[in-house]
């Protein structure tokens, strides 16, 4: 099953810095095991563009649409057996401590 893993900042990171995971080791391990299909860091919110269409009119604005202190800073595309495995993969990512991880399964559009 494929999951999109959003890597996000958080205003309240973990303060326990003992045994902090290394992101390069996390990437290498999950690439080696075939669980990480793709991933990358994203440019900051100052580079974001929001696109909407309302009543047939194109509305383009600079920056993210959401007014929030947290932001998506990267993503990883995972292939896992199930949600439990995806949670274990996300749990080991450094941003699970420094920020937050959101997992979303891909919809099965054939149903």
UniProtKB/TrEMBL annotation:
Highest taxon listed in the record's lineage: Bacteria
InterPro entries named in the record: Dimeric_a/b-barrel (IPR011008), YCII (IPR005545)
Region forming the signal peptide: none
YCII-related domain mapped to chain residues: 43-108
Membership in a protein family: Belongs to the YciI family.
Entry protein name: YCII-related domain-containing protein
Species, as recorded: Micromonospora deserti
Lineage: Bacteria, Bacillati, Actinomycetota, Actinomycetes, Micromonosporales
């Amino acid at each position: 099953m494929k999951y999109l893993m959003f890597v996000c900042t958080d205003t309240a990171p973990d303060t326990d810095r003992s045994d902090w995971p290394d992101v390069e080791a996390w990437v290498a391990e999950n690439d080696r095991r075939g669980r990480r299909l793709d991933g990358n860091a994203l440019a900051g919110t100052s580079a974001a563009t929001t696109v909407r269409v309302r009543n047939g009119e194109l509305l383009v604005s600079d920056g993210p649409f959401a007014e929030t202190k947290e932001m998506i800073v990267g993503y990883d595309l995972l292939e896992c057996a199930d949600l439990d495995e995806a949670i274990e993969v996300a749990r080991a990512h450094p941003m699970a401590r420094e920020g937050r991880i959101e997992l979303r399964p891909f919809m099965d559009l054939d149903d």
